[in-house]
Specification:
9-stranded mixed sheet; Alpha-Beta Plaits; single chain; TIM Barrel; two-stranded antiparallel sheet; 12 helices
């Protein structure tokens, strides 16, 4: 990487090595902080905020109060085993002071060069398995310069690149990122814009528009369909998605159905945030199978789980 690229900084939530999800083969998944959507069912709510933040595991807290001793704002810990998230400045001193791992730091600043250095450690495994690196989040395009420089660095090392995106991005910045992307994992959450906005905070017009523009620019594009009970698990919505793909996304055939899970519930508790999604009913295997069969009947390649 060039020297000016090495100094580009961003906020990384986590780097997961030896993943077999989020693209083909063995992959390193780099989770970036920040997201323009606020999906009620979000599986990674700790990734929504761009800056680093504290996570608190109540079951690990021994009430030793070391956190209160070191905190510049000691009133945050008036009650044992509790943290006042609203008044926390994010200095992270309590994280370092906690002997029991009850407090962790979500997010840290890294340079693009540091990320690429970690990714390329496992290049032999990528080469043998057809894997590579995947940028995820959050939403990687919330840090466009950082994402671009990571991808550039990986491509210069001969590493296959993939990105997961919600598609809600400035096209000028997004198109520059796509120049260094081999596989595009693209979320489409609902085909009705008003329903989409009600549960994610944004309409879907930009997302659909960017999907159409992006499809011819990458070697491979996969549509990801998170199946959320009471939100987008209707056959009508699935049919609308299939027809959109056939009409607008020429050459894009694969859809990954990603059934809802409630991992975001416990994560919301750790960052002091209410879990806004109320599950109206359990997602049945029968419903997922119906969606699968409908999309297959429309000529698409469908995988459950991705």
């Amino acid at each position: 990487m060039k020297n000016n690229e090495e100094t580009v900084l961003g906020t990384v939530l986590d780097i997961e090595r030896f993943s077999v999800h989020d693209g083909r083969g063995i992959r390193t998944v780099v989770f970036l902080k920040g997201c323009p959507l606020k999906c009620e069912w979000c599986a990674n709510p700790e990734s929504q905020q761009l800056k680093p933040q504290i996570g608190f595991f109540r079951d690990k807290c021994a009430a030793c109060m070391k956190c209160a001793e070191i905190c510049p704002n000691g009133r945050l810990f008036k009650e044992q085993g509790k943290l006042d998230f609203l008044n926390c400045t994010g200095c992270m001193k309590c994280v370092d002071a906690c002997y029991y791992g009850a407090r962790i730091q979500y997010g840290r600043q890294m340079s693009a060069a540091e990320v690429v250095k970690i990714v390329k450690r496992d290049k032999v495994f990528y080469d043998n398995s057809g894997g590579g690196v995947t940028l995820s989040g959050g939403e990687m395009s919330m840090q466009p310069g950082f994402a671009l420089n990571i991808l550039k660095g990986c491509k210069s090392e001969g590493i296959h690149t993939a990105v997961e995106t919600c598609g809600y991005s400035n096209w000028e910045q997004f198109s520059k990122i796509l120049e260094y992307v081999d596989m595009l994992l693209y979320d489409i959450k609902h085909m009705d814009s008003s329903i989409h906005k009600a549960k994610t905070g944004v309409p879907n017009a930009l997302i659909l528009e960017n999907a159409v523009k992006a499809a011819p620019l990458v070697k491979e594009m996969i549509i990801r369909y998170p199946v959320i009970p009471g939100f987008n698990d209707s056959l009508d919505n699935a049919l609308a998605l299939a027809r959109f793909m056939k009409a607008k996304l020429k050459g894009v055939k694969r859809v990954d159905l990603l059934p809802y899970h409630s991992m975001g519930l416990s994560k919301c508790e750790r960052i002091g945030k209410p879990y806004p999604f109320t599950l109206p009913y359990e997602l049945s295997g029968e419903r997922v199978q119906q969606l699968y069969e409908l999309l297959k009947a429309e000529g698409l390649d469908v995988i459950i789980g991705g």
